[in-house]
Amino acid sequence: MVNITGICNTVSDHKLEFNAIILKSFDEERTNDILVLASHFNGLLNFGLVRVNIKYNYVSFVYSGDLLTYMLYPQEIENDCFDHYDLTKDCVWSFYRLMETGEDPVFVFSELLQRKDEKNKEDNTVGLKE
Fold this sequence. Notes:
alpha+beta
């Protein structure tokens, strides 16, 4: 089960920001592993950004969309909200896995990608006749 610690949406500077706290706190000795895992996410994300706050030791996932786009295409708010939630669950799973197992961040991220590939294969075969 995935435990998301907090999600909030705010409006500022003509942007709607989706923000989720992934880890409320972490030990300083885990900072390098957390930064490596965050960089793996940010390297592949085309939606949002994983931020690591070293001063206050927390991790968040943030996406902001233009309010004008949402006014012109109202369905985009719902789509972006669902996308943010799904990606937040992936981030939470990965960071919690890293903290619980102490595995190398590369292996944690690789396992996430493998799980997503398997799920996509299952989803693509649903309803198909053999």
